[in-house]
Amino acid sequence: MKFTRIAAIVEKETTEIVRDPITVVVALLMPLLMLFLFGYAISLDVDNVPIGVFDQDRSPDSRALVDRFIQSGYFQLAQDFTDNRDVEKGLQRGTVKLALVIPPKFQNTLARDGTAPVQVLVDGTYSATANLVAAYAAAIVSDFHSEASPSVHVDARVWYNPALRSVTFVIPGLFGVILMAFPPLLTALAITREKESGSIQQIFASPLTPAEFLTGKLVPYGLIAFVQIVMVIAVGFLWFDVPLRGSIGLLLLVGLVYVFCTVGIGLLVSTVTKSQLVAMLLALIVTLMPSFLFSGFLFPISTMPYVLQLYTRLFPVQYFVDFSRGVVLKGAGLPELWPSVLLLFAYTAIIFALAAWRFRKKVA
Amino acid sequence: MGTRLAGLLVKEMIQLLRDRVMLVLILWLYTIEVVICAYALSFEVNDMPLAVVDLDQTSASRALVESFLVTDAFAPAGYPASAPAATDWLQTGRARVALVIPERFQHDLARGDAPTVQVLLDGTNSNMAAQARGYALEIVNRFQAAPTTAAAAGGGVQPVVRVWYNSDQTYTSFVVLSMIALAAMMVGVIHPAASIVREKEAGTIEQLQVTPIGTAELFVAKTFPTLVIGLLSIFPSLLIVWWFGVPMRGSFLLFLALTAVFLVSAISLGVLIASVSRTLQQALLLSFFSLFPLMFLSGTLAPVESMPALLQTLSLGSPLRHYMDVILGVFLKGIGLSELWLQALALLAIGAPLFATAMLIFRRGKP
Amino acid sequence: MSGAGDNMIEAEGLARRFGHARAISAIDLRIARGEIFGLVGPDGAGKTTLLQLLAAILDPSEGNCRVLGFDTVRQASEVTSRIGYMAQGFTLYDHLTVAENLAFAGKVRAVPQAVYAARSERILAMAALTPFLHRREGTLSGGMRKKLALCTNLIHQPPLLLLDEPGLGVDPLSRRELWRMLEDFRHEGATIVFATSYMDEAEMCDHVAFLDHGSITAQGSPDELRARAQGAVFQVETDNPVAVENVLSEAPEMLGSQWRPTDVRFVVEPAKGLSNELRKQLEQLGRVEPATPSMEDVFVVLRKGVRTEVPTGIAEVARLAASKGHREPAESVETRRLTRRFGDFVAVDDVSFEVNPGEIFGLLGPNGAGKTTLIRMLCGLLPPSNGTARVVGIDIASQPRRLRQRIGYMSQRFSLYHDLTVHENLAFFASAYGIKRRPAREAIAWASAVTGLHGLADEAVSGLSGAVRQRLALACGILHRPAVLFLDEPTSGVDPQARSRFWRLVNTLAAAGTAVLVTTHYLEEAAYCHRLGLMYEGRLIAAGDLAALRAGLPQDGLETIEDVFLAYIERERTQAVRPIGEAR
Q: What is the DSSP letter of C309?
């Protein structure tokens, strides 16, 4: 490995990147755009769910129950039904997501028997939140009028994210996802572009060794990726107010390893493809898709079928997502998180070994 | 006119059938992707690892623990000796929920002193934590209502919760349908964009321009096949719909018709992208980055109601959002045009100007 | 470089397969120090593969090869760190400037800073690139890019230089400069190996190897090789070339013929010679005399397996010409002060000329002279900024749709659909011209016959050689029997035999009354044109037939068209400098 030759590649690559404004814009703005989209648009919190009420009793008790719903903050009254058919229509059109049907003589029955049934109809088409909506509604209803005789108190405490804010949950995971979405793609394209234009032949027919060439490509793209991660972390903490409970140094340090890992995946992809189009599709399949779907970032891995759980282990995103959530939300350090860190190191090493082994200075 | 258009359409069809990468992509999006996601993605709380700290060790406390463990929601992760130990488990991720039953639980319960049970939740995944908390509350509620607790038969209001349209509340129906909608969107954008840009790259577009083929003919030839493909690809995914037991309650014809309207806006977007790109790579990057916000603002990933007001307003511009209403409505709710006319109108209102702009720019793009 | 001896390259039994396809087989090669060695062969002969094997960037399937004394498989890095290798096409970084590209090459090759400064200055001056130091590589003309690519390979003064078709797509002026650089370099003691399909480049070698179907069919100095065709090359001066062709096509000893405006040149099998019978037949049609063999003739002799087929479509073309009912206007193409600007840049400047029916008008000029822009305007692809043009009497600006019915256009990229078969391409273009099903079948049969595409109907275009693609592109352009045919560098990158065949086709079409406007880089092809137009920096600096062009110059002794062409450009350059100097 000769330093001057690596420096020459780095310099050349940097000049090319700087002269390609589209790439620079994509590299720097897209992560931020994604951060904002995720931060604002991906919220699985339940609030202001539009509900409809069909109150057939119209007694003080029934009105009190409706008030409970409104005051909970989860629901807002969108429609007052007067007919069972309206209830159905409202749910069908989607103007209400939940209908509360209070039977006639609700107050009387409650007073007489100490108990009374109430119907809660939930639109289950969007089941991600339907579950929650149903659970909240059930809790409100069963709490109603039962304060008199509670037999067990529940002290439910949510740790790390007491307000159960989605943003707090989404953003630390997003660090890992964004880094897997762009750097591999950019790196893979950077090498296949040279293959397509033929300039790689000049590289082959030169004293550059594969290690020098790959290192030269790695440094500028690694740098871009590192700038991305710093940027995303800064915006995440400063703009979205995500609490940072652990050590920022540790996060950045392991982040650096992860950066090399993602760029390494890009290098590996580029060694097995000849055209930019295929490189792009392959990068999408091995990086972007799994990082969204199979990283535990949004969708819990524990509920997937076993085979798919094994499949998710193939991708490094989840190790970093676990690590990042641990540091940021739980304030955990190496003593708790060393398995994820170790896996990440091993993964990176293997990726580089594979890329160096696959990359040969031959045209075919 | 007839001969030229027919010739163009035949050519486009042959090219599509020979384009392995595109065919595989379409097939992947409409089938394999749908299946993988249907199996893999779920927001349901299932087998959440639960750490149990039972400081009472009586029949009542064991009954409470049992009522947690019999549900699908929780699975035992182990029995740490103390509350601090349970905390450690949460910290390392060995457990996501901890249940702490105090000493003298049975004793207090019997005396009617209402003992306090602690449920500690790892809130890092806010959605799961919220659901788990809901479940925990429900379980404890049911526990006190049960006669085994020997407590006075608790009164109160009994909720009868019924979830409609998707009664078993599986996420599968939703995932399957939204993935099909996404596939239609992606194919609708990517296919026309790729087929136009490819001709630019190969220089054949110039060759077409020295023939008497008119822009309108070329435009139709570049858009119509995608519409056909988009509609035909629905059929293999119907198999998957059937496999996962997703009901088809509404009118299939209405569904096809509205899909066509939806595809028009997607295709127009593809043509627009192709008009401003010179290379396939640019076209793909652009489609990719324009699909992203459309997808986010559609309600496929997260409910629109939970977004800030500004984004909710913006989401009205995403054709995918209205199409999601259509596909969920027709399949799960079995509703017809009398309920969906607003969505149909919205799709038209988005599609028509997009289509007109695409046509205009396509025409201008010709030197 | 121990053990190199006097041979820079020694190869034995070299072979390379790609899958089942043999790219090259059983190559033995010895190239001595200080030689210029040419690898000549048709498309797909394996020239590139052989060069890549020599450059140690491809491993042979069989055999072994020592370059500079190092084994190309086991000591590949020793080879690649010493040699210079210039791949086909443009392989530099187009976003980097001239200086940056060269500096990158220097650093990769670890040229010391002080040495680099002196050497780069000299090389850039040699390539006349010094004024463009800070221009991006992608904005340079093809010729300049090639020169720069050569510079990046000279910066470390390699003892051996491997060049893959360095002259491809480069105008004659730049090609000359490129060769001057190589000559200088050779005087410094380097060895040069290059692949080419230009026969004039082959003449400049010390040694030539003919490569065909992956094997070397002949090797030797140009003189030795020419000797092989001695007595086998003849020309017939005639005014009835069609009849001569027909006679030749029947003759068993005939290997190939080339049809030029005033004579037919043909090559017979050297072993058989010209039979008396054939000579008698030909003498009835014109004057037969032996000709001095050129490298192109050698090429024809060596490829004797491939007989040049005579286009069978001549009869059909003639019939078509006779059946043409309506009268064409006197001029097929007529431009008046046609001008096209791109921003401040004037691509075509005040060009007026006309082309008559049945005439082949050749536009010559270096890269960037405005030839392609001119053709694109005449096809209605670009609106003119100023001036007017009429094609078959139709104004190009106001009636583009009508215009397109009457013209055929073939771009230098042979724009075809690679994923369709030959027939599908033809059928598509027939429908594109609005030809209904039954007439389309006839038109396709006719165009295939004219261009000799028999038996290829179901082949996918992606698998065809450049020469066949070229003919298919022509077939697609003539389906609707256009009155004017525009050909933009139709022979670029095609081997000499295919070029000759192509020109015969063009000639046939012109004979049937089609006007042809053609641009070309190959100056020797100017001989096929009836009239020529010389373009330089957007202007038409001279037009007329060869004799008229010669007469237009004061100097005598301008033998070849190349000399005439360069003389005009020289004159233009000296004239152009003066007014600018005065303005300052």
A: P
